[in-house]
Amino acid sequence: MSTAENRNLGRLATAAPKFRVNDASLAGKIAYACLPLRQNIVLSNLQLAFGESLNDAEIRHLARAFYSHLLRSLWEFGTASFSRATPVRVENPEIAFEALQARSGLLLMAGHTGSWGVTLETAIRQYPEFRDRISVLVRQFRPAWLRSIFVARLKRAGINVLAKRRSMNLILQRLAENQVVGFVMDQHASPREAVRVNFFGRPAWTFRSLAVVARRSGAPVVPAAVYREQGCHVFRLEPPLMQVVTNDFEHDIRVNTQQYNHALERIIQRHPEQWIWNHRRWKEG
Question: Is the torsion defined by CA of 160, 166, 169, 175 positive or negative?
Fold first, then answer.
C-alpha cells in the first residue's frame, strides 16, 4: 500500500466521526482543571485525531470527559475485588463459537477502551467453557505491583497471561490447540517490532505481531469492542476481518496491520472519551 493510499484511507476513516461523548463528571472537570495528568498530551492527541472535525471547545469537552472516564476506571479497578460487579453485556458471542469451528484458534484484537480489564474478567464468568482457553498478551508496565495485581486477577478469572515478547511459539501452540489469544495493540511500538501505518490519519508505529501470527496460523482476527454504557459494561465481538494474503509477505503485514488500526478507530469513535488519550501514541521512534 502506497503512502498516498495510506493517507487517503486515514482521512476517510476520520473525515466524519460519528460518536457520542458522555458528559464529564464533576470529578473529571476538577481533575482536568487541577490535576492535569499529561493534559498537554491529551489535548494534542485529541487534536491530531479529531482536529479537522471538532473545534477547540469540543476538544476540551472531550478531554474533560476522558478524565471522568479515567477516574471511574481507576475506581472500578480498585474496588472490583470487594464490591458488587457492574453487569457486563456480551454481544455477538456466536462469532467466537463459529470461528472456533474451523479448529485454527481465534485471535481477539482489542484496544485500551472502557474498563477493559474489569470487563473481560467479569465477562468470562458468563462463559465457563472459555475458562483457561483464553490467553492475553500483557506487556511490562510500571508500577510493578499494579501489574502483579492485574495479572493475578486475570489468572483468577481463568485467563492465561503471556509475555508480549518472545512468545511466538507459545502463541502458535495455543492456536493449534484451538484456543483464543488476545492482542491489545493500540500502544506505541518500537520500530524494530513494528510497521508505521496510519492511526486516525497520522503515521504511528504499530505492533506487527498480530499480522504475523494471523499469517502463520491462519486463525481469524476478530475485533473486540469494550465500552461503558449507562448501568453496564459492554463486551462486543465484531465480524472477523478479511485477511490480505499475497506472495509479498511484508506487503501483507503492512496492509493487514493498517486494517487493524482502522478497526480500532471505529471502536474508539463510538465512545472516544473511553480511550487512553494520555498515551504517547504518535511518538517518532
Answer: positive
Residue with cell 479448529: 103
pLDDT in tens, 107-140: 999 999 999 888 988 899 899 999 999 999 988 7
Q: Is residue 232 part of a domain?
A: yes
If 0-12 CB within 10 Å is exposed, 13-18 middle and 19+ buried, where does residue 123 land? buried
Give the domain extent around 21: 3-274
In a domain, 279, yes or no: no
Neighbouring C-alpha atoms within 13 Å toward the C-beta of 163: 6
Helices (H) and strands (E) in the chain, counts: 10, 9
Does the residue 184 lie in any domain? yes
Could you tell me if 86 and 233 are in contact, meaning their C-beta atoms sit under 8 angstroms apart? yes
- pLDDT value at position 13? 41
Split into its structural domains, the chain has a count of: 1
10-33 pLDDT, tens per residue? 443 444 445 556 666 777 677 777
Whole-angstrom Cα distance, residue 238 to residue 248? 27
Residue scoring higher pLDDT (66 or 285): 66
Cell numbers given for 103: 479448529
Task: List the grid coordinates of 31.
Answer: 481533575
DSSP 8-state symbol, 86 = P
Going through the chain in order, the beta strands assigned E by DSSP cover: 88-91, 106-110, 134-138, 159-163, 180-184, 194-199, 202-207, 221-229, 232-237
Is the residue at 280 inside a domain? no
Compute φ and ψ for 232, nearest 5 degrees.
-160, 165
Tens of pLDDT along 264-278? 999 999 999 999 999
